[in-house]
Amino acid sequence: MQNFGSNNELDEKGHVLNEQPKIKVKFEPKPKPSKCPICTIEYYQQFFNIEQRDVYMRIRCSILSWKPEFHQCVGKNPDLWGPLWISTTIIFILFAGGNLSRFLLEEDKKHFKYEYNYMYVAVLIVYAMAFIIPIILGVIMKYILKSELGVFDIVCMYGYSLSAYIFVLILCIIPYNEAQWFFLMCGLANSTIFLLVNLWDFMKKNKQTVLIAIPIISFNVALILCFKFYFFRLIYAVDD
Amino acid sequence: MDYTNQKHPQNYSQMEDLKTLDLEESVSETIMRDLRMIAYKLKYVLIPKEQEDNGKELRNWDLWGPLIFCLALAMTLSFKADSTTTSSKSDVFAIIFVLIWVGAFVVTLNAQLLGGKVSFFQSVCLLGYCVFPINIEAIIIAFIGSYLPFVVKLIPVIICFAWSAYSSVGFMASLVPPHKKKLAVYPVFLFYLFLSWFSLIV
């Protein structure tokens, strides 16, 4: 009796001989090498290879800025989660807190005009400080001044240096001039000391590398001046 | 062919069979069917008891629902915005619209970069549907907010914010490995906080 329907081997009586176990082969197409590796998601996944405990440790390193422990915390694993979400939190606090601070000062609370421009300016300033400036500095340090630190190490460091401003800017909602200046100065000191202490190994190499401290300090000072004179400016009623 | 006597589909897969016949039906039929689909998904996303199959229903993602809620929120808030200058109305509309879509995009990208294996649009769809409670609170505050003191206005804001966040957090947290859950959930929290803040202050 012929069996046309089966592919298995048959013995004389037509019974199926040793059924081969069906092996499922998963066909995975080879990933095409991208022309632009920086443009793929896979490239950036290496910078999100951290756990919530790591983020907590790095923020702690940044708040206790006088201890040069950041490189130990980070190891070979700079991350972009911290810079991205710390800067976004600061944008929210600037937008909400800046307007809240003006609202508390306003006498005519019913006709308070909310300034939506704060949103655009906050996004511009904070993302420039958290990403554009460290990328430029990192490229200069790595390719011109021959630093061992990569560009993303510097971006990571700058991002976490802004973490002190989260607390500082919440406190700046208090609408008193002196209090705001005090808190902003504390934030400036913390952030700048953190950056300088952790870059000290690089800076002490020679006279040229020390000069990197100048842009670092000046950009931080410019940042708090923006905070004070745009977001938390105090408008005093003028008596005629 | 007469479709008006058909029973309402009990689940979404039955709705799929009807899709092949939509060229022959009237426009109102198509629109009602799409609205029923959106309502079904909304109930599924926002009421935790409905999710017996662990979010599999979300594989049938759509962006109509998120678009409707986004436009409704942007229009409610810009309608309520300070009417002394036209630019602040358009500012509010633009900010809310961009915030919702860019925010959903960035939060989903964040989850993917942390190692979450999820379809991009599935996650955007979920985040968009969870904007609905914020819509409710914006409408409440838009109509009766001026008669209430600030503290009383806070109550629906906090309730709706918590409802939105709770609905989406379960899904987002399930996407990533256990030690990264807070890293995936915090952006969701920030996203809804931003939107709730807008509905409170406008």
From TrEMBL, chain A:
One of its GO terms (biological process) is vesicle-mediated transport. One of its GO terms (molecular function) is small GTPase binding. InterPro entries: Yip1_dom, Yip5/YIPF1/YIPF2. GO terms for cellular component: Golgi membrane. It is found in: Golgi apparatus membrane; Membrane. Residues 69-224 form the Yip1 domain. Its main location: Golgi. The chain crosses the membrane at residues 84-105, 117-145, 151-174, 181-200, 212-231. Pfam families: Yip1. It comes from the Eukaryota. It is a multi-pass membrane protein. Keywords: Membrane, Transmembrane, Transmembrane helix. Belongs to the YIP1 family. This is Protein YIPF. It comes from Paramecium primaurelia. The lineage of its organism: Eukaryota, Sar, Alveolata, Ciliophora, Intramacronucleata.
TrEMBL record, chain B:
It is a multi-pass membrane protein. It is found in: Golgi apparatus membrane; Membrane. Pfam families: Yip1 (PF04893). The chain crosses the membrane at residues 63-81, 93-114, 126-148, 154-176, 183-201. PANTHER family: GOLGI MEMBRANE PROTEIN YIP1 (PTHR21236), PROTEIN YIPF6 (PTHR21236:SF1). Belongs to the YIP1 family. This is Protein YIPF.
